[in-house]
Amino acid sequence: MSDRERHVLASWHANADAWTRAVRERAIPSRVAVTDNAIVAAVQACAPRTLLDVGCGEGWLARALNEQGMQVTGVDAVAALVERARAAGGADYLCLDYAALAAHDFAIAFDAAVCNFSLFGDASVDALLVALQRHIRPGGYLLIQTLLADDGQDSGWRDGSWQGFSDDFVDAPPWFSRSRQDWHDLFARTGWRLAGEEVPRFPDSGAPASVIFTLENR
Fold first, then answer.
1. Environment class of residue 39 by beta-carbon count within 10 Å: exposed (0-12), middle (13-18) or buried (19+)?
2. Above pLDDT 70, what percent of the chain?
3. Is the overall model pTM greater than 0.90, yes or no?
């Protein structure tokens, strides 16, 4: 794990309570307006019966998909977030970082996995995507909702910001930003087939809010 990735993890440990409050109080406008519903709909379109939520945080997506009849297992590297997810129920939850997830033996091969704004690193993401092929059945799906590098920007680490969040948040983590082409290259070298790509947009301005990639395990 690089120094920047350690900083990311330390920041999420420090902000676990603030993040839980922000999500549960629906205090993040982009999520309320666009991205939460977009990822739920994208997962539903794949019709999985079993699902692995990678970077589940306090568990909102796992609970939402469980309400749609899916059997969900959530994993996160931040113990405090996993504790809050377990307290709210709706799924099975495990505290696993990327390396532990790669080595973990689940009782089943999942129909799908989802990474909803949970891929912040660089080389560690390559290793994770390779490992997830073992946990998802052949023909199953991996869905990734993320942000793209701005047009003309190279992929690379960006400074984080909690602008627009409450003063409860501290020490904004950096994040590794990729261009669309670099995401496509990542999928190709880790063995995933790009099955679909959509750009959820804000209803008032039409501006892109995120991108959702749907990948098939070949």
1. buried
2. 100
3. yes
